[in-house]
Design brief:
Blueprint: H1 3-15, E1 34-37, E2 44-48, H2 54-71, E3 76-79, E4 90-94, H3 98-102, H4 109-112, E5 117-122, E6 125-130, H5 133-148, E7 151-154, E8 157-159, E9 166-168, E10 172-175, E11 181-185, H6 194-199, H7 216-219, H8 222-225, H9 252-268, E12 274-276, H10 289-298, H11 302-321, H12 325-330, E13 332-337, E14 346-347, E15 350-351, E16 359-363, H13 381-393, E17 397-402, H14 416-429, E18 433-437, H15 448-460, H16 466-504, H17 525-543, H18 550-575, H19 581-597, H20 611-619
Helix pairs in contact: 2-5, 9-11, 14-15, 15-16, 16-17, 16-18, 17-18, 18-19, 19-20
Length: 620
């Protein structure tokens, strides 16, 4: 385990006043009825199914790790084939064991979903089980929350009670996430380790669905088909990439091949029941006579996409019904509402075509102002209209949201004001899946870790108090001393960016290429110096704690440095010419050292702004 993880489980418990939400106490302070650990010893064993999946084995490892971290006691792990009846010992049953079956405890995926879980107590035994295996992992974190108050802020930063004893009373928990399928496209979770994703209660999209979003290039790759079937494509020159070309959806021969390839994919991936039929990235949709006629018929380009997706879904579902009727009922398909398909096939408030019951819409409002909810008519009328009209066409929704500026990751960016409201709107819509895209391939500051935590918490429970989550994160991640200053910076930056919306119409966006937003007009020198002063005070205050706990100081200092990059960037990008040569040199070296330490290289999605290009520009 990472050194910092152990540090924070110990250090933070010493500095934070954690409530007795851990080992449960009765209101009269009488110890709990059941002793799970005493004086660093335990009689309990963890029981997993014989032949358990790697996911359930990981759940057992996490329970062992955190239980030992809190109590000092080691939980043995056994398979249900190696134990007798529940009466023969003290057990924590994980997953769909024979003990769970004997106890007649239901953990039905149809009720819990894949990620929901139950925790039940019978006598001195505990039963933890998810609707799917992922839910069983989450049930472990749920139990640890009940016993020790475990709160995970990042994969290597958490708080929990630490004691040699643990007692509990009756536990009866059913916990189902508000958003069933959650993916966060940030460097700290995107294609990250199993530990990182599970601890943040998110997953890899491709674990449960075919390739995320864009799919035409996958099922009908140009390198395979273009030479012999140019008429299947929207372009006349063979594509060299996967964007800015589409398929001719009115071509019946192409659709037959597409369906064949989708069937092959489903056969090869028996655990995946959500199939993307999404267009390629960019534009370049087909404008042949037949496709134009369909566009006119439906009143929008998206109409032929709905028609195509319905047809593919029907053929594939019917085929699967002859093989596995249960799986046929589980199959779900979706298409994009993105760029040229944002406009729904709706005329005068009436749909010109409807999605089939198992066809959904992945809404990706890339042009929205992300500082406001997509439903905000005053600032996001266009995105609000997209959602309103597609809800006339389909009942099934998937979301692809955005929370960075792709042209410049270091452009000060306030997407915090929309996070909770958007998620609550998704819950009201019955959204099945949310993917929030940010800086997938490379760490950046701009509160990346905080955003991951907020999405993790609010997609599970959208009713949590936003400001409480932020403050708790600041205290845990940066330490109580530095956390107060970081919160002040966070609050000042958000307030100032909000003021720019009203005074300069400068909204937080994700796709705009307006690099002029980082200018002295919007970020005057006295404001940047004020931000710098906040960090100067934070570093000074943190320095005073160094002698007390140098290990904790180092971790907090590194995290504070990382967020300070935002201010260093503004200083160097806008005001380096007013600096002395030595001052500029020192700031450039500090920026470079922090960036290298945090493996930062690309500063925009296209890769045209790199660390070396920034440094070379600033040195001139």
């Amino acid at each position: 385990m990472k050194r910092a993880m152990k540090l924070f489980s110990v250090t933070m418990c010493a500095v934070l006043a954690i409530s007795a939400a851990g080992c449960k106490q009765q209101e009269n302070n009488t110890p709990g009825a059941y002793v799970m650990a005493e004086n660093g010893q335990t009689e309990y064993s963890v029981v997993i199914p014989e032949g358990a999946s790697q996911t359930v084995e990981f759940a057992a490892q996490e329970l062992q790790y955190f239980f030992r971290e809190s109590t000092g006691a080691n939980l043995a792990v056994k398979t249900d084939a190696a134990v007798g009846a529940a009466a023969d010992g003290k057990y924590i049953s994980l997953g769909k064991t024979s003990l769970l079956e004997s106890a007649e405890i239901a953990a039905d995926e149809s009720q819990l979903g894949v990620d929901g879980y139950v925790i039940r107590q019978k006598g001195d035994d505990l039963y933890l089980c998810g609707g799917g295996d992922d839910g069983t992992v989450y049930s472990v974190y749920g139990l640890l929350k009940e016993l020790f108050g475990l709160e995970i802020y990042t994969a290597d930063c958490y708080t929990m009670e630490r004691t040699g004893d643990c007692r509990f009373d009756a536990i009866d928990v059913t916990d189902i996430p508000d958003i069933p399928f959650r993916v966060i496209g940030r460097s700290n979770t995107w294609y990250s380790t199993q530990e990182n994703m599970f601890r943040m209660r998110v997953t890899n999209a491709e674990k449960r669905m075919s390739n995320l979003g864009h799919a035409f290039y996958y099922f009908i790759p140009a390198e395979t088909y273009f030479d012999d079937h140019e008429e299947w494509f929207s372009v006349k020159t063979k594509p060299t990439g996967n964007s800015d070309w589409q398929l001719c959806l009115s071509n019946a021969e192409m659709r037959t091949e597409f369906v064949k390839n989708v069937k092959a994919y489903i056969e090869e991936h028996p655990d995946i029941d959500i199939i993307s039929l999404g267009q390629n990235d960019g534009y370049g949709y087909c404008e042949c006579e037949d496709c134009k006629a369909k566009e006119e018929q439906y009143g929008a380009v998206s109409g032929i996409y709905v028609e195509f997706c319905n047809a593919v879904a029907r053929e594939v579902t019917e085929w699967m019904r002859g093989i596995d009727a249960a799986r046929a009922n589980r199959l779900q398909f979706y298409m994009f509402a993105y760029t040229f398909t944002e406009k729904a096939p709706v005329v005068n408030g009436e749909p010109t075509i409807l999605c089939d019951d198992n066809v959904g819409i992945l809404v990706a409002p890339i042009g929205a102002h992300v500082s406001h909810a997509y439903s905000d008519m005053s600032t996001n009328a266009a995105s609000a209209s997209i959602f309103k009209n597609w809800r006339i066409v389909s009942d099934n929704f998937y979301i692809w949201s955005y929370s960075t500026h792709f042209a410049n990751y270091y452009m000060p960016h306030n997407s915090f004001g929309s996070i909770q409201k958007n998620i609550q709107n998704y819950v009201d819509m019955g959204v099945r899946f949310v993917f929030d895209q940010a800086t997938c391939g490379n760490s950046v500051s701009n509160f990346d870790a905080l955003k991951t935590y907020l999405f993790s918490k609010l997609m599970w429970d959208s009713t949590l108090n936003f400001d409480t989550l932020v403050r708790n994160f600041m205290n845990a991640y940066y330490g109580e001393i530095a956390g107060a200053y970081v919160y002040r910076f966070f609050d000042v930056m958000r307030s100032y960016l909000t003021s720019l919306e009203y005074s300069e119409s400068q909204y937080a966006e994700c796709a705009s290429q307006r690099l002029t937003n980082v200018s002295s007009q919007y970020f005057p020198q006295n404001y940047v110096y004020y931000l710098d002063d906040i960090f100067y005070e934070a570093f000074e205050a943190l320095e005073e704690t160094k002698a007390q706990d140098e290990e904790a100081y180092t971790v907090y200092k590194d995290r504070l440095d990382f967020e300070y990059l935002d201010v260093l960037y503004l200083q160097l990008e806008l005001y380096r010419d007013s600096m002395s040569n030595s001052e500029k040199k020192d700031l450039i070296e500090r920026f470079q050292d922090i960036a290298i330490k945090n493996r930062m290289n690309n500063f925009n999605e296209s890769g045209t702004i790199t660390l070396s290009s920034l440094i070379n520009t600033w040195k001139q």
